[in-house]
Design brief:
By secondary structure, the protein is of the alpha/beta class. It contains 7 helices and 6 strands, in the order αααααβαβαββββ. The protein folds into 3 domains: about 45 residues, no CATH class; about 40 residues, no CATH class; about 120 residues, Barwin-like endoglucanases (Beta Barrel).
Length: about 240
């Protein structure tokens, strides 16, 4: 949609921040010298749409395919018109990623199936950890504002009553989460909405908010997921003990 209000205070758009960073590090790209409107207009035209001026005038573009195309009445978008169950992962990844196939794509099943590729829990690391967004801040956005910190309190990990009892822990205890990558200190909170054996650490707190100076991503792998890369932020196996 169109710009409706000016940004308050020192707020800046992502585009402004990226352009300023590019200027500081000497990065070159035509997008860094374009205004937001020029950037949007260029994306529209490069995508085969009409101009931003026309979008402003009409409020939206109806880009929905016709009924027969949308419902595959006349077949699917392959030369033979058939739905292809067998995946060519290398070719597919080249379409969606400019870097080509990434991660262990050759190990992926060629037909629709479960792929047992997640980080397994073991006797040494019996918990699955997910690093979900906090209610007040998403990832690192707004995680250093006074209001967000006041509302969130402190870095915590949510654990079920059964898991707390098994480890001799109680709500509010200081705990250490760890695996072969590192250790993180935070406080545990009694929470019963997840399955036993699952821990939830909400929000990406700054490293200096953790007692040992290590944030939650010290436990997260840097593995490239197949077939086209991405993040593995919710695929972590850890142990937990009282600090």
């Amino acid at each position: 949609g169109r710009k409706l209000v000016d940004a308050p205070g020192e707020c800046r758009s992502n585009h402004e921040v990226l352009c300023d960073l590019a200027a500081r590090v000497g990065a070159q790209h035509r997008g860094f010298s374009m205004s937001p409107r020029q950037l949007i207009d260029g994306m529209l035209l490069d995508s085969g749409r009409r101009s931003l001026d026309e979008l402003d005038a009409e409020n939206w573009f109806d880009v929905m395919p016709d009924f027969e195309t949308a419902h595959f009445i006349n077949g699917f978008a392959h030369p033979d018109g058939k739905f292809h169950f067998r995946a060519d992962w290398k070719r597919a990844s080249a379409i969606i990623s400019t870097m080509g196939a990434l991660g262990p794509w050759a190990d992926m099943p060629v037909f629709p199936d479960h792929w047992d590729v997640t980080e397994r829990v073991t006797e040494a690391t019996p918990f699955r950890l997910t690093t979900s967004p906090a209610r007040t801040f998403l990832n690192s956005s707004f995680n250093e504002t006074p209001g967000s910190r006041k509302r969130e309190g402190r870095p915590t990990v949510l654990a079920t009553p059964a898991d707390l009892q098994r480890l001799g822990l109680k709500d509010g205890d200081k705990v250490i989460l760890g695996n072969h990558r590192g250790e993180v200190i935070l406080h545990v909170k009694d929470h019963d909405s997840q399955e036993t054996g699952v821990l939830i650490a909400e929000g990406l707190w700054p490293n200096d908010q953790h007692e040992n100076g290590c944030g939650i991503n010290a436990l997260t792998g840097a593995d490239q997921p197949a077939p086209a890369g991405g993040g593995v932020f919710h695929d972590i196996a850890v142990w937990m003990k009282k600090a």
